[in-house]
Amino acid sequence: MSLASQALLVLTNAPNEEAAEQLGRLIVERRLAACVNILPAMRSIYRWEGQLEEANEVAMQIKTTAAHYTELEAVIKAAHPYAVPEIIAIPIVDGLPAYLDWITQETSKERNA
């Protein structure tokens, strides 16, 4: 497997389900990910600009490949309502081969919609 075809799980959060759905659709429509899971609401506690903050958020799990990470990151940053969105990429080191192949196929720019 080449480094570019390495499957990634990218994590980000959105302030609400509507924002998560808009971002998820944009990402999948552009073939930057094969799938975006939007998880139920959660509560986040964090420090921002020196202050302790709490917020309700919606978690997103994005399945993509390393070849698409740079463009995916740029799209998330541009479309995200947060000044500094969480964007974390975790390499998928093993998984069902057919599923990992599906991620690669669905993110192929040459594939017809």
Strand segment tally: 4
In CATH, what is the class? Answer: Alpha Beta
Q: Rough shape?
A: elongated
Structural class: alpha+beta
Alpha-carbon distance between the termini? 25 Å
How many domains? The number is 1
Biggest sheet statistics:
4 strands, antiparallel
What is the radius of gyration?
Answer: 15 Å
What is the ordering of alpha helices and beta strands?
EHEEHEH
Under the CATH scheme, the architecture is 2-Layer Sandwich
Describe the structure.
Strands 2-3-1-4 form a four-stranded antiparallel β-sheet. 30% of the residues lie in helices and 36% in strands. The protein has one domain (7-106): Alpha-Beta Plaits. The model has no long low-confidence stretch (mean pLDDT 93). The chain has 113 residues and is an alpha+beta fold. It is built from three helices and four strands; from the N terminus they run βαββαβα.
Show the helix and strand layout.
Blueprint: E1 7-14, H1 17-29, E2 35-48, E3 51-65, H2 69-79, E4 88-91, H3 97-106
Antiparallel strand pairs: 1-3, 1-4, 2-3
